[in-house]
Amino acid sequence: MATETDSAVLLDSLRISRVERDEAPSSRPRWLIVAGVAAALVAGAAVLVLTQRNKPVAVDVAMAAPPAANKSSAAILQATGYVTARRSATVSAQITGSLRQVLIEEGEHVLAGQVMAQLDDTAQQSSLAQSQAQLHAAEALLGQFEAQLEQAQRDLRRNEQLAGGAIAQQDLDNSRTQVRTMTAQLESQRRQLELARATVRSAEVQLSYTTIKAPFSGVVTAKAAQAGEIVSPMSAGGGFTRTGIGTIVDMDSLEIEVDVNEAYLHRIHRDQKAQATLDAYADWNIPAHVITIIPTADRSKATVKVRVGIEQKDPRILPDMGVRVSFLEDAPEPSSQAAAAKGVLVPSSAIVERQGKQVVYALDGERTRIKSVVPVQAFGDLRLVEGLDTGAKVVLKPGADLTDGARVSVQRQ
Q1: Helices marked H in 222-340 — which ranges?
Q2: How are beta strands 273-278 and 322-330 bridged, if at all?
Q3: How far is Cα of residue 67 from the mean position of the Cα atoms in its chain?
Q4: Is there a single domain that holds both residue 313 and residue 255?
Q5: Helix, strand or coil for residue 224?
Q6: 3 state SS of 52
Q7: Helix (H, G, I), strand (E, B), or coil: what is residue 253?
Q8: CATH no. for residue 215?
Q9: Which residues of 308-347 are buried (b: 16+ CB within 10 A; e: fewer)?
Q10: pLDDT digits over 205-237, tens only?
Q11: Which residues, 6+ apart, have CB-to-CB distance to 174 below 8 Å?
Q12: Domain that holds residue 340
């Protein structure tokens, strides 16, 4: 009995439990999943770091200016008005006709002499062909009269040689009359030839009127007609005839007209510096100057119009935009010492300390470059520094995380 009991115990110890057999293999996949998740997290973190590193940093910049260029100006008067174009035209046809083609669209740039539209020219082509045929006929008739005159002159010379008995005096007189007659006819035909040539030129001009061209370079601001419509330089009434093809504005001729109260007109003079601010871009100050004061007053408003020139051309400036103009009075420079000192002026917020040195972050294309500078003197919010070129753009208030060579995008300058 003891032997059988010991054998049973021994067999039980050698038997593999089903629970242990089922649990042992499952532990390996669990660790593989955990390792895979960890690897994915590490890879994602690396991609995020690289993405953030390459993402441009939004910054504000300012331009380093020479001390003499830094003048503080105060606004002594403000006025409102509108952007106007000194050169603007509604282009129309010089003759009445049906539009065959309209080759312009709003917002399109056109050059002087560029074809804007084409009228139906069937009648003009026919008139030109008729005039040219009449010219050829006149030229042929002129040749005929020239030949007849030459024959009459030969007959006269022959009769003059035979005069004195061999020919009657009447025949000699008839020859002379024939020469004078043919000479007059030839001269008359020459005048007819000139008339025929003038008629051809007139027909060519009428044909040229069917091609409508831009009188100057500019931008199309309005398209007033379509192909198939009748256009005329004069209004025909009834609303079925167009008087214009489109409107062109020379954007280089844009300026500002403002109304200034008569009581403050003495504060403004020709070539005075000014600053314009469009209602659409309230944070954008545009350099300007006074062109002239129009010498007439509006008695109903007690104002005088002032023309203001825009010194900075920009496609954002459009005709009829509302604008506010600040007329400036030049003030003395911050200090005469600043003009005599060497260096450039930059905002104080652009200067930071890195590794014990005073530096600025200058723009080099889309990236920043650390430039060591030597601050010389402070002038209000500006610092005179050495080690920087005039016109260099520096980052305002650079953060501690901004590095040398970092990509940036300029928000405001």
Answers
A1: 336-340
A2: antiparallel
A3: 34
A4: yes
A5: coil
A6: helix
A7: helix
A8: 2.40.50.100
A9: bbbeeeeeebbbebebbbbbbeeeebbeeebeeeebbbbb
A10: 999 999 999 999 999 999 988 998 888 887 655
A11: none
A12: 57-69+335-412
